[in-house]
Amino acid sequence: xxxxxxxxxxxxxxxxxxxxxxxxxxxxxxxxxxxxxxxxxxxxxxxxxxxxxxxxxxxxxxxxxxxxxxxxxxxxxxxxxxxxxxxxxxxxxxxxxxxxxxxxxxxxxxxxxxxxxxxxxxxxxxxxxxxxxxxxxxxxxxxxxxxxxxxxxxxxxxxxxxxxxxxxxxxxxxxxxxxxxxxxxxxxxxxxxxxxxxxxxxxxxxxxxxxxxxxxxxxxxxxxxxxxxxxx
Length: 232
Known about the structure:
232 residues, alpha+beta, five-stranded mixed sheet, 8 helices, globular
């Protein structure tokens, strides 16, 4: 696991200090049951180069290995679900690239053990695409996307939800992170408007979390999980 500090300058300018392995495992052990649910979603709002998310994915892939190792196709399917459940936002672009690479490298290493001499190139492509959509350049405080220098843009952070809907088909739905954070199941009633004026009719209940979330800004035609990168 990477060290906690890359440079004094990065600490001074960005407050960048990485969580060490012991602390990561201690936190995840507190929600151990969720880390072992393949489809349980995790969002790290300042993910750095991936210390936290790599360990989450490792635990999920351990479950995939245990349950589906004897079937390459089933392993691919549920590894896709695990990959699609990992989300991160990071201010510094080099960290974003490093996080994506570390997650992908772990998936590739595990997959090659299962596939041996017959890996499916489409699975590699799908994994890279999903990580590119799930680990994003952004400012978790302003909830804005950032440019390559870490400066806020006018664009919101947009995440994709990946759900197996039938057989091997995946449904992709895109959501704005700022709107998603407005919903809360703790409220006794659905508000008439969100804080940004979103009508209540544009909200829905997330069955997994019990929270109110806005309806997606875009939905995609269900497709094979091998083909998610080809659907516009």
